[in-house]
Amino acid sequence: MAPRLLRTAARLALALGALAATAVPAAAAPAAAPWTAALDGCPGTGPLRPCLALGTPQRLGDGLVRTYARLDHGRPLSVGILYSDRALDHLPTAMTDGHHCFDVDGDGRTDPMTECAGSHERVLPLPAALLRMPDMPLKWALVNWNPMGHPPAAVFDRPHFDNHFYLQPKAERDAIRPGPCRGLTNCADYATATRPVPAEYLPADHQNKNITEVAMGNHLPDLTSPEWHGAPFTKTFVYGSYDARITFLEPMVTLATLRDARTADPATACSPVKQPKAWQQPGWYPRSYCVGYRPDRHAYSVSLEDFALHR
After folding, report:
1. Among the listed residues 236, 301, 249, the one whose alpha carbon sits nearest the alpha carbon of residue 280
2. Least enclosed by CB within 10 Å: which of 74, 82, 217, 257?
């Protein structure tokens, strides 16, 4: 075998060995899926392209959730979140995990139904190989499980996952304080969160409905999406903002839609991400988002796809 082929075979064997080394006991996740540690399958040089990189997992339900990225010679092919098969089983049923509460009425107690921001959150690091890429604006990810949905009523009130991909540093997001204003947000921070994004940086169909939340910011939904016109909520895409800047990209997906991805027609997996005229921050941005099932990884996926470079 030629030396170059020998080197390639050796690298492939190392990569496969790394995948095998990350197997975990069946109680945590199927052994065929590498779930226990971060996996950087994207070295700085070499022929292994496209390559897979995985972020450190967090527990959810009876399984685990983690980020992933598929890269090809400095271009992102896919950036997403993997939910192991059992992550959708025995999910928390309480409205909130109590991360973000505020005693609105001053009685010394916080009512989880009215004085805590909803959801159960999992902070997820993005893969190291993705963060090393030039022109990559994404910095970290956040999954919020909403067992009772969240406002607005009759729009997003089904059990669902909010999959946030943040452009904003985590420390800045964490500094959005709790308080008595809408979304249990500090009133000064609420005013900052709802400052309008300049029109050229937001698709026309995505509009400000003042859907703010503590430690998150404002949500700018697509008002042409079916759930705003009486249809059941299944999935949608939301831009997030704070202080007149786009701060996160968010595919929202109901639990039922994610479960159905195992048997859904692959032709319906992806939907367009409506594009602004320009991006405030240069870099790679997705033109579609997808909801699917990966039998090779025993996992459901919610991903950003079809990236284009904007400078």
Report:
1. 249
2. 74
The Cα–Cα gap between 304 and 272 comes to 10
> How much of the chain, in percent, has pLDDT values that exceed 70?
85
Kindly state the tokens that stand for 206: 């995505």
Hey, how many other C-beta atoms are within 10 angstroms of the C-beta on 175?
12
Q: 287 vs 59, 78, 130, 247, 280, CA distance in Å?
A: 30, 11, 18, 17, 16
What φ, ψ does residue 41 adopt, rounded to 5°?
Answer: -90, 20
Distance between CA 30 and CA 52 in Å, rounded? Answer: 19
Question: Which of these ranges, 37-51, 209-223, 270-284, 291-305, has the smallest mean pLDDT?
Answer: 37-51
Write the Ramachandran bin of 236: left for phi over 0, alpha for psi from -120 to 50, otherwise beta. Answer: beta
Cα separation, 231 vs 258, whole angstroms: 18
Nearest C-alpha neighbor of 251 from the set 142, 110, 132, 136: 142
**Region class of 245: left (phi > 0), else alpha (psi between -120 and 50), else beta:** beta
Q: What share of the chain is helix, strand, coil (3-state, %, to 5)?
A: 20, 35, 45
Question: Over 90: is that where the pLDDT of 100 sits?
Answer: no
Interatomic CA distance for residues 146 and 93, integer angstroms:
9
Q: Report H helices in 122-277.
A: 128-131, 170-174, 187-193, 255-260
Q: Which residue has the tokens 């909130």?
A: 96
User: What distance in Å separates the CA atoms of residue 238 and residue 206, rounded to the nearest whole number?
Assistant: 8
Per-residue pLDDT band at 44 (split at 50, 70, 90): low
